[in-house]
Amino acid sequence: MKEKYINLFTDFGFKKAFGEEASKLHLISFLNTLLPEHHQIQELHFTSNEHQGATALDRKAIFDLNCISASGEFFIVELQKAKQNYFKDRSVFYATFPVQQQAQRGNWNFKLSAVYTIGILDFIFEDEETDTRNDVIHHVQLKNQHNQVFYDKLTFIYLTLPNFTKTQDQLETLQDKWFFLFRHLHELDEIPPRLREKVFLSLFEKASIARFQPEERQAYESSLKYYRDLKNVIDTARDEGREEGREEGREEGLEQGREEATLQIVQGMLTTGLPDQQICSIARISSEQLEIIKNNL
């Protein structure tokens, strides 16, 4: 059966639900569930999602969503569908652009507005410590050696949404409901009772594929195909990796068995009085290996 609502992890779906003027309230509601009280957003406006470097030779950055709140905070919102090398490095690099663009000509006291980078991830950080690997929200700031915040105007918030496992009946907070929709909107056939709030009714209306114009439907289908192809490649690579791991395990087991059998054969031959050279030839081991076996008898 065809899906009724868009997949929010597709580029088209994400921009449709959060990146248009008509869907700005969705983005504000979602971001406010992640922000501290003193940086809650009342209004925001989108800015160019492409930032050039200081010179023509500098690398540019292209964000999924780039916006500024009415009180001056900067927000970079990035959708990341798959792992990539140096993802954290890229996040830091991107965060430097809204910092640099605040520079003013002439006399300037270097006072900066807060910058937030929000990473919405369809994968988990496997390199994290065990006690944080299963977290949904990873809140990162600069801290000193005493674990005290050194600078509170540069914040990275990563959402590892595969770790969010609540069901419809377990949804309590506004944040829970947004996380649930990121994971399951495209699987729903109707609006769940717990998601009948005004902001979500608006989202479901924007996310209804039946309401799309033909060109929108085509654009979404292309975006969905790209997402599914990417997921298929990742899943295939993961399955092949598991099989290689199992094969390596089998090989290791066989190798260990061969080593144990060789050890038993050598130990038996040592009791017969055969010359060392002949034992090495029969067992296919070096004289050094034979000496190690002798020393461990």
TrEMBL record:
Source superkingdom: Bacteria
Region (Disordered): 238-258
Coiled-coil segments on the chain, per record: none
PANTHER family, A to Z: PD-(D_E)XK NUCLEASE FAMILY TRANSPOSASE
Protein name per UniProt: PD-(D/E)XK nuclease family transposase
Organism: Oceanospirillum sediminis
